[in-house]
């Protein structure tokens, strides 16, 4: 089977290059066309011009029954790489000026075709060009892919467990060909980015997330598993779409729903007890419920709640540093959070914990600095002549304890009457920003454009010398505001971060408005990798806190001063190695680390921080062609 390619730690300085990996000989038990059709072993690629470029040396052709199945010319991996990149760049040129959706889907298709044919080359071009390709195989384009799923995927990826498979999952799980699985990303398609319920089409999210696990954390692509729990969909458009490939029924609810998740989790834990399970893009009520249900039974975490919380906390601490204030000044920051969903409440809960630890006071006291805005639905009755009309009125406003049907998960963050500076229950976002003058305005609402010109202008009166605008909703069109609008209306001295990537803004006179990507991609790969290599059976708040603190401390003073709160995506492998080390060392400190492979708990406990980073790095898979036959 495939061996982990070794990558020396020295190559993992903050520059990006990796030294050459030293592949071990790898036996393959397939022959002839079966090898060409297996993207894991295939060394041929099809470029746009339609002919095969092939990297199989003559020895392998003779010994693996490939002679005559390929054109005679053997070209190197580097030549194949250059050929693919040439095809990609010419696609970019030929589609210039076409609508964003057309261009990004065309780019996704050429990458997906390579993924289907030659995984080694696919992951190498992804790792080497992560800044260009992450927005295509991940956010924001992955949202478009999910919306157009039925017409896009050529080769099925991952596994699908549906409500019709009840009672069958324990046997189904053995249909997956890999004996070992390290990372599983699971969704039920109920809240795909800010696009809502996309049913079975949401499988694109686990696939994209796991591509980031391979690219950022060096998880071996033969040991990943994207999973869709298809429990139906409430998306009427999909139910009526004759091409829809999922169950044509409304979503399961209550115990029926949980029974499906339980059965899947039991099956996967039985076959791969050490696999890490990441829950992704579940609607809020199930996101919280499943996290509490499984986090003490399986090594799992919910990325939208916990991964996002860590990334946002790192950005909040960075925005304190950007004001030239000591980190402990975080407890004096006034923060407005728009969206009390799985992500928004996850962020609030981690931020309150961090602030109350810093201030040494109760979480109740600390909550004063946070203001939460979310939807409220009120029943109004009007009398019209003899008839009485009842109408449901939905609006978005400040969450206070006076709110009638307050979601229990949001209750801890509801303001008491005396804490709202004269504001009323349901005060609008603009009223809150004008009155509170917040240091930070953070959006996780899923609704594009709600940080409108008035709201952004009101942020000019912020109590902060560097007001922070975090428009974290995805994909791009769902961002609470664009980077250009933020710098234009809130002023040039803001710090800005968004969930989807925007280009930096040219402010004129040589000044640049730096745009950060506040996306959980900076943490989930390190959380998964650190938990995996630690051998811990659970992912604790302490491990997640360590991940967030590692990300928060990663940036240098000069980067922070420029308004750069997160690392460039080009250094995502370096930050992932450090986050993974922080998570592993937290597991050791909590005596949860049982080791991984030949490295036991004692060795882990004796590693210094630097040695832990190196250990993590040494275990990052890197794509190179391995010999498929022994030379002699
Ligand atoms: N940047 C990241 O890393 C990251 C991480 C997780 C989620 N997200 C994004 O955040 C968004 C929300 O994700 P979620 O899981 O919390 O979804 P969710 O559906 O659980 O929560 C969204 C919340 O926003 C509220 N809301 C909607 N419109 C609003 C408005 N105008 N004003 C105030 N509140 C409003 C809803 O009532 C709901 O409570 C999505 O777009 C998602 O893609 C980004
Ligand atoms: O998927 C992402 O880009 C981040 C996050 O998990 C989200 O749901 O938006
Ligand atoms: Mg998500």
Automatic annotation (TrEMBL):
It holds the Pfam family malic. Keywords: Metal-binding, Oxidoreductase. InterPro entries: Aminoacid_DH-like_N_sf, Malic_enzyme_CS, Malic_N_dom, Malic_N_dom_sf, Malic_NAD-bd, Malic_OxRdtase, NAD(P)-bd_dom_sf. Its cofactor is Mg(2+); Mn(2+). Residues 305-588 form the Malic enzyme NAD-binding domain. Residues 115-295 form the Malic enzyme N-terminal domain. Belongs to the malic enzymes family. This is Malic enzyme.
């Amino acid at each position: 089977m495939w061996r982990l390619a070794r990558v020396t730690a020295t190559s993992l300085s903050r520059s990006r290059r990796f030294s050459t990996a030293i592949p071990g000989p790898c036996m393959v038990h397939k022959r002839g066309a079966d090898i060409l059709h297996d993207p894991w072993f295939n060394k041929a690629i099809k470029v746009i011009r339609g002919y095969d470029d092939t990297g199989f040396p003559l020895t392998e052709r003779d010994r693996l029954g490939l002679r005559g199945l390929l054109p005679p010319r053997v070209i190197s991996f580097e030549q194949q790489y250059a050929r693919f990149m040439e095809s990609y760049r010419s696609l970019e040129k030929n589609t210039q000026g076409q609508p964003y959706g057309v261009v990004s889907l065309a780019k996704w298709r050429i990458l997906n075709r390579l993924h289907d044919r030659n995984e080694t080359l696919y992951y190498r071009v992804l790792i080497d060009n992560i800044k260009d390709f992450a927005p295509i195989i991940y956010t924001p384009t992955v949202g478009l892919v999910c919306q157009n799923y039925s017409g896009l995927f050529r080769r099925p990826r991952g596994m699908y467990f549906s409500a019709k498979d009840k009672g069958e999952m324990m046997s189904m799980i053995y249909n997956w060909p890999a004996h070992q699985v390290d990372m599983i990303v699971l969704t039920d398609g109920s809240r795909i980015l800010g696009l809502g319920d996309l049913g079975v089409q949401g499988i694109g999210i686990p696939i994209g997330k796991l591509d980031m696990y391979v690219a950022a954390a060096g998880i071996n692509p033969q040991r990943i598993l994207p999973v869709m729990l298809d429990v139906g969909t409430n998306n009427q458009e999909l139910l009526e779409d004759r091409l829809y490939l999922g169950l044509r029924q409304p979503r399961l609810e209550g115990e029926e729903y949980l029974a499906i998740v339980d059965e899947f989790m039991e099956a996967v834990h039985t076959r791969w007890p050490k696999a890490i399970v990441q829950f992704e893009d579940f609607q809020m009520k199930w996101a919280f419920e499943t996290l509490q249900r499984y986090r003490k039974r399986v090594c799992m975490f919910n990325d939208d709640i916990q991964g996002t919380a860590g990334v946002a906390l790192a950005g909040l601490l960075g925005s304190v540093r950007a004001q030239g204030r000591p980190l402990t000044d975080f407890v004096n920051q006034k923060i407005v959070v728009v969206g009390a969903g799985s992500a928004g409440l996850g962020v609030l809960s981690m931020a309150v914990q961090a602030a109350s630890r810093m201030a040494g006071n109760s979480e109740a006291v600390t909550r004063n600095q946070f203001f939460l805005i979310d939807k409220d639905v009120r029943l109004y009755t009007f009398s019209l002549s003899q008839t009485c009309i009842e109408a449901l009125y939905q609006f978005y406003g400040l969450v206070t304890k006076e709110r009638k049907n307050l979601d229990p998960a949001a209750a801890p963050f509801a303001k008491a009457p005396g804490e709202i500076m004269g504001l009323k229950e349901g005060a609008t976002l603009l009223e809150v920003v004008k009155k509170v003058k917040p240091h930070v305005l953070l959006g996780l609402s899923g609704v594009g454009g709600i940080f409108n010109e008035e709201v952004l202008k009101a942020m000019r009166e912020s109590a902060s010398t560097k007001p922070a605008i975090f428009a974290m909703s995805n994909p791009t069109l769902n961002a609470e505001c664009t980077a250009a609008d933020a710098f234009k209306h809130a002023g040039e001295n803001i710090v800005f971060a968004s969930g989807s990537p925007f280009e930096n803004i040219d402010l004129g006179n040589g000044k640049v408005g730096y745009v950060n990507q506040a996306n959980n991609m900076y943490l989930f790969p390190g959380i998964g990798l650190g938990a995996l290599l630690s051998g811990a059976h659970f992912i604790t708040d302490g491990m997640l806190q360590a991940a967030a603190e590692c990300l928060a401390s990663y940036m240098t003073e000069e980067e922070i001063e420029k308004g750069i709160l997160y690392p460039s995506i080009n250094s995502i492998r370096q930050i992932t190695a450090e986050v993974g080390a922080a998570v592993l060392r937290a597991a050791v400190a909590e005596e949860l680390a049982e080791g991984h492979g030949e490295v036991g708990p004692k060795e882990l406990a004796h590693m210094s921080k630097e040695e832990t980073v190196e250990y993590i790095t040494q275990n990052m898979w890197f794509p190179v062609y391995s010999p498929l036959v022994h030379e002699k």
